[in-house]
Amino acid sequence: MDDDLSQHYQGSPELLMFLASTVHDMKNSISVLSGTLEHLLTNVPATAAVPVPAAPEPAQYQQLGQMLYQTRRLNDSLIQLLALYKEVGKPGYPFDPGPRSVRELVEQVEGQARILLQSRGIAFETDFAPDAIWTFDEELVIGVLVHAINNAIRYTRDRIRLSVRVDGDYLELRVEDNGDGFPPTMLAAGAQAMDVRDVQVRFSSNSSGLGLYFSSEVARMHRHRQRTGAIALENGGELGGGCFVLRLP
Fold this sequence. Notes:
alpha+beta
């Protein structure tokens, strides 16, 4: 953004408010659409043993699943934009960490992802200590994990795994898939998200880096004594594909 344009936006709080309001309205509309698609997918099986009048064919079921996936991606991006507009991590942001059940966290994430995963024929595995308690902002962490799962859907063959374990002074949350893994450019982007504050648009990969930037900001907000949260992208893991890692102190 050139200096003149940057100064124009900085001197136009009304415009920024208008844009934020527009994004909020778009998010609400997409949430309604996403809810409708979920309802359709929940009440219409992929294959019907008994013919149902006007029931979608399997190909149509797959198309509904693809539509739900795309609306989820849009909704994720709009939520992240609104949170960043409200300056995630800045004084005054409603950051609400507290002792939370790991079991309940996993159940909520699984519940939000279930219909989409079923519609895509993707198995979802979990591995966690059921009695573990950790301090974190539940809403923000759920948002990060659901976004990571939605991203893994693009690359997995047919399995995604969410694991949560205590590793020393950190809670490590991993979203893994059995795809081909992240390319080197994505691995570098994961490291860059923790090192710099830039969001670099990558038109060739249809990625703005917004999700990584948002996730890194959420990780940074979680602090305990001298330790700070972090994210990372890796290859390998239990399923041999890409791994998104969130570590909270």
